[in-house]
Amino acid sequence: MNSTGPTITAVGLAATLLSEALKQPIGVWIFKPLASLGFLYTGYHSPAYTSGSQFGKTMFASLALGFLGDVCLIHKSPAAFQAGLFSFLLGHLGFAYAFAERGMELKPALTAAAAVGLVGSVVWKWLSPNLPKADRIPVALYTTVISAMVVAASGSAWNTPTPYLQIAGAIIFQLSDLCVARQQFVHKTFLNPLVGLPLYYLSQQMIASLMYY
């Protein structure tokens, strides 16, 4: 794996955060898609995708849905947020399917399910009082799907050459979503993208790098 994709993401991310700090929306519109193109580049040039394997095609489609979700979330309207949420939901379903296809192990899957169930209940207790009525079902569904993705990543990890990379990528993705939720529903502050965006792009690059093994 070469460094081109991560470099594109790093440059785009830095410029996006600077634009956010300076409250320059045009910069975010330019540089956030650039940052997301970085993980698409990583996936597109991977052996799994260039060989035409089902794993590679499913993973790349899921990365592309992440790119689409990123673009939707730039717009601040509720409709755009829900469109982005749906795009990411489909992407997580794709990742979960691709991971599970590699073969699931019962014990790590059950351990992960117990852990994400506990964390999910705490997060829901924190978040639900702040959710508008129209967002409660979509957010609950999304939370369930990303939790399932983490379970699939954990349950199948030991059938891959890079188990810790796969598990870490999935967990960091879920952590980055907490920053998105806090920004959208709890407290708008630059701290949310400052923490959440680096976590998000790190996780997407980690997940894309799985296509090289």
TrEMBL record:
Swiss-Prot/TrEMBL keywords: Membrane, Transmembrane, Transmembrane helix
Recorded topology in the membrane: Multi-pass membrane protein
MF GO annotations: hydrolase activity
A Pfam family matched in the record: YhhN
One cellular component term from this protein's GO annotations in UniProt: membrane
InterPro entries with a match to the protein in the record: TMEM86B-like
Locations listed in the record: Membrane
Transmembrane residue ranges: 80-100, 106-127, 139-158
Record-stated family: Belongs to the TMEM86 family.
Full protein name: Lysoplasmalogenase
Source organism of this protein record: Apiotrichum porosum
